[in-house]
Amino acid sequence: MAEWDTIPGIGRFLLPLFAKNNGRKSRWEEITKTGLCGLRLLCPNGQAGELEAARDHALFQLKIGTFQVGRGTECEAHLIGVIDDDRGACTCFAWEMRERRLVGPFRDNAFAMRYRNVGYLAIENLGLKV
Q: How many domains is the chain built from?
């Protein structure tokens, strides 16, 4: 499922027209994080990971991928998380594309993400407030 599939009743080809006329947003980068209290990762095998946040700007999602010359880009995992404290501790779920499995919930840290050696998350770019 792609981000545009999250708008009910809208097909891929109608999205640009819909977005211009109605102003509704579906892409993570474009939605407001204020008032966002839950996040669900729906997986192709029917599983789902779900997180709740007690405050605004604590939920995040990202894709982890690789780039290889001659092969292009490949998405390895889609990750959702919630920041749990001011030290960056977070709880996450991830759908691993190649393995076709949901992992989590697992604990990590947004300032030094160990999962797949991601490292420091760009807090500002994700719209997070720690």
A: 2
